[in-house]
Amino acid sequence: MAQKFIGLVAGKLKQIAAIVSSAGAADAGKIIATGSDGKLHTSFLPTGIGANSVSATASEVIAAGKLVNLWVDAGAMKLRLADNTNGREAWGYLKEGVSSDAAATAYRLNTVMPNQTGLTVGSDYWLGTAGGVINAALDATDDANTGKLNQYIGKATSATEIATVEVAPVEL
C-alpha cells in the first residue's frame, strides 16, 4: 500500500496516495513512493536510464540464474542458454525462469547475477555448459578444449550472487 499524505485540493484538505508508477505527463507534480520491493519503478526514470536489459522470446526453457545468449531467428531476437561447448557466448542472465516460446527479460553482464547456489565468496567463475558457471578457466593446452569458449563471468560476492563483468570470450 502506498504512503498517503495530506494535500490541499479545491481549497479542502484531502488524503492523497503517492504513486508507485508513472503514466508520464499526466502524473507531473505528483509525489512518488517506492514499490513493494522498496525501489522506484523504472517508469519514473528518464528515457535511456533504467535496467540494462533486453526483452526477447526464449527459444528453450531457461531457469532463473542461467546465463543466456542472444541470437537472431528469422529476423527476431531470441534467447537461449549460453554454453562454452557450442559457441554460445554469455550476453546476460535471467532473474526469472521462462518457458520455451515465452517472452523473457535478460539482464546484461556488468551487474550482480542472483539465483546461484554453492558459490565460494571471492572465487572467480567462467561460463560453463547449459547456462551454468564453472570455477576454473578452461585449460588452453588441453586438446579436449579445442573449439570451446573460455569466458570469464565474474567473482562471487556471496554463495548466491556473482558480480559479473562483460569480457569477450576466447575460442580455444
Short key terms for the protein model shown above:
172 residues, mainly beta, five-stranded mixed beta barrel, five-stranded antiparallel beta sheet, 14 strands, 0% helix
Can you give me a brief rundown of this structure?
The chain is mainly β and 172 residues long.
Can you walk me through this structure?
The chain is mainly beta and 172 residues long. 0% of the residues lie in helices and 35% in strands. The chain has strands spanning 4-9, 12-17, 53-58, 67-73, 76-81, 92-94, 103-108, 112-113, 124-127, 133-134, 149-150, 152-156, 162-164, 170-171. The strands form four sheets. Strands 3-5-4-6-7 form a five-stranded mixed beta barrel. Strands 8-13-12-9-10 form a five-stranded antiparallel beta sheet, with no helix packed on it. β12 and β13 form a beta hairpin. It is elongated and about 80 Å long. It starts with a strand and ends with a strand. The mean pLDDT is 94.
